[in-house]
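User: Hi! I have a protein structure encoded as tokens and I'd like to know what sequence might fold into it. I'm fairly new to this, so please keep things simple.
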């Protein structure tokens, strides 16, 4: 893995000298969330996919716990005072940690082990530094482009430093575990969402095994990230996502020109965004009942194509909404079945590119809930277009459908 990027001035601090616990630099926290997602892809790719059943009946593997430990450890280096809500319990994290130790260090003499740990720490520091620089450049470019420009609140950059007690981070270390255990790696994702004052400001969606539609980089896994912290949605080591650019072109053309004068939206991009090319996504097993009724009603009004796209995994659904490769535009699921760690990253990313995520009544999600109450009992409605989201919510209210 080659990690090179032009340094910013003044030099940014390494993880060992990060801010005090009381004030947190959000760019450092965002860099830690993205860097740790990349690092967490390693145990996901290398540990056994053998699963066991959790108390709620869902499958879990050692890779789930190992990935969550890696993410939490790096986040805690930024601040030990922030609130972290991860899907996996301490027991699962400890089991995953044990698997990592057995795989990488069993039988290694103490001297070599110490050297190996030091090398990994150095690699982590370099990765963090390069990611941090990338985020700083994104924010600086957006801030310069926004000077003197009236813009939607979605693009207003949040303050860079905030008190630790205002921050929550939601983590799903391995979304799509069931598919993962069956060898279906396409829909496996890692999700990290940063919340400030109950508002998502930065999200990361990583694909440990790579993904369609994401520009390849020299990092070892594919990932998209973004939010109001940096004013857009991007692929790691790559460019801004097409839908993010298109929305800025439509809403703030002066800002878009300042950001990238060479970028032009061609006719195919415009056609792809038209209403009859927009399609709904849902898990195949949950495509009937109220979901099908809503899709049919939206299609009859000319707002959506009748064809459903069946996709597994909350994170992969979000990735498809962000990229829109096949016209994916709406994820309508007005029932329990997802949790806050499934949608926090999606919420942050959709906000900054003209989309919207809410419960089935159109209300913002409540990220103040604790782990035990994190299930989204009133479902979720996620859309790449806030206008289509509004139509969907309006239709649901008017029809009064039962959630079956």
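Assistant: Happy to help. Inverse folding works backwards from shape to sequence: for each of the 404 positions I chose a residue that suits the local structure. Here it is:
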């Amino acid at each position: 893995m080659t990690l090179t990027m032009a340094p910013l001035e003044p030099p940014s601090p390494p993880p060992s000298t990060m801010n005090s616990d009381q004030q947190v630099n959000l760019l450092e926290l965002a860099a830690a969330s993205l860097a740790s997602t990349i690092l967490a892809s390693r145990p996901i790719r290398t540990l056994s996919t053998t699963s066991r059943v959790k108390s709620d009946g869902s499958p879990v593997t050692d890779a789930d716990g190992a990935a969550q430990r890696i993410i939490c450890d790096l986040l805690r280096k930024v601040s030990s005072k922030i609130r972290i809500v991860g899907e996996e319990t301490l027991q699962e994290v400890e089991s995953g940690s044990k698997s990592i130790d057995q795989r990488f260090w069993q039988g290694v003499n103490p001297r070599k082990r110490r050297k190996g740990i030091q090398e990994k720490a150095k690699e982590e520091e370099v990765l963090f530094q390069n990611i941090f620089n990338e985020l700083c450049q994104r924010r600086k470019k957006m801030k310069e482009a926004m000077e003197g420009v009236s813009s939607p609140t979605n693009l207003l950059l949040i303050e860079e430093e905030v008190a630790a007690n205002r921050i929550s981070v939601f983590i799903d270390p391995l979304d799509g575990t069931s598919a993962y255990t069956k060898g279906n790696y396409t829909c496996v994702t890692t999700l990290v969402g940063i919340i400030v004052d109950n508002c998502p400001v930065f999200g990361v969606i990583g694909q440990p095994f790579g993904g369609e539609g994401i520009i390849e980089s020299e990092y070892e896994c594919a990932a998209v990230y973004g939010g109001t912290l940096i004013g857009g949605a991007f692929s790691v080591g790559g460019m801004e996502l097409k839908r993010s650019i298109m929305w800025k072109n439509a809403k703030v053309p002066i800002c878009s020109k300042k950001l990238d004068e060479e970028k032009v939206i061609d006719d195919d991009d415009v056609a792809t965004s038209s209403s009859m090319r927009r399609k709904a996504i849902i898990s195949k097993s949950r495509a009937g009942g109220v979901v099908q009724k809503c899709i049919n009603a939206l299609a009859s009004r000319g707002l959506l194509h009748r064809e459903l796209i069946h996709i597994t995994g909350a994170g992969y659904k979000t990735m498809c909404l962000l990229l829109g490769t096949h016209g994916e535009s709406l994820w309508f699921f007005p029932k329990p079945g997802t949790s806050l760690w499934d949608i926090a990253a999606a919420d942050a990313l959709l906000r900054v590119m003209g989309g919207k995520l809410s419960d089935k009544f159109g209300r913002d999600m409540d990220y103040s809930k604790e782990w035990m109450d994190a299930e989204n009992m009133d479902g979720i409605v996620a859309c790449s277009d806030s206008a289509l989201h509004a139509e969907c919510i309006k239709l649901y209210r008017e029809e009064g459908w039962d959630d079956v």
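A useful reference point when you look it over: DSSP finds twelve helices and 15 strands in the chain. Feel free to ask if any position seems puzzling.
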